[in-house]
Amino acid sequence: xxxxxxxxxxxxxxxxxxxxxxxxxxxxxxxxxxxxxxxxxxxxxxxxxxxxxxxxxxxxxxxxxxxxxxxxxxxxxxxxxxxxxxxxxxxxxxxxxxxxxxxxxxxxxxxxxxxxxxxxxxxxxxxxxxxxxxxxxxxxxxxxxxxxxxxxxxxxxxxxxxxxxxxxxxxxxxxxxxxxxxxxxxxxxxxxxxxxxxxxxxxxxxxxxxxxxxxxxxxxxxxxxxxxxxxxxxxxxxxxxxxxxxxxxxxxxxxxxxxxxxxxxxxxxxxxxxxxxxxx
Length: 280
Ligand SMILES: NC(=O)c1ccc[n+]([C@@H]2O[C@H](COP(=O)([O-])OP(=O)(O)OC[C@H]3O[C@@H](n4cnc5c(N)ncnc54)[C@H](OP(=O)(O)O)[C@@H]3O)[C@@H](O)[C@H]2O)c1
Fold this sequence. Notes:
alpha/beta, Rossmann fold, seven-stranded parallel β-sheet, 8 helices, 16% strand, globular, binds NADP nicotinamide-adenine-dinucleotide phosphate, NADP
């Protein structure tokens, strides 16, 4: 088997779906060597996840990695500094790959970190200030990180020199990106914007072996869903989410993250498209 070495950057990797994704990547991707860059606010949480990944023994995958903690992607004042820290960490992994002659065959950025916004409010109650705060985190920093990642990856692994290298950008999206529901104004706007940006990138960078995917993981049985049940102002939807919670039909994080990793492995998805956990 030819060696498959992936550089995998995940935001919000300390807990929730991001941590589940990191585990699934080790367990189910085609890589036999993975260099992780785990990004988030909680440094010790990220370190714990990286240690767990390195202790997985059920598959024969070499796991290396670095954590970039104390990264608050909602703070625009520190965004340049934090992007530079992520850039340095990724370059460190690329440099090690060169030194050990373990060439990177795929570079993957998974934009997982995200927030709900105030689900207690309908659109007429939003202030532009809270809209700006919401979009700073969920859209502006997303664009900044994706631009940097693309520029750096294409410069470090140019197609002329590395024709087999692939680049993949994933947006952890939502049904709300393609279907509106009451009280989700900020969340739906943010997810739709992220989806569309990756649609554009898919066209712009097709010739550079870049693919993008917007993946909606389904209603997950986790902290964010608990926040939805606690804060959502729309009673009809609340009844549905409560019912799913009580009947145990919320999606298990590991089932959804495995589905995403297998989609990436199969690599026959339409670049720039939107795929939901429930599809097929
Ligand atoms: N849960 C669902 O049912 C569901 C459904 C559809 C889509 N999604 C999407 O799935 C993704 C992961 O969400 P989740 O369900 O795992 O939610 P979660 O349990 O609330 O986790 C959110 C992650 O984002 C990080 N984060 C939050 N604010 C941040 C900030 N300002 N800067 C950097 N990182 C920050 C969190 O880190 P901290 O520990 O530092 O807070 C955490 O790692 C999100 O994009 C979400 O929209 C979730």
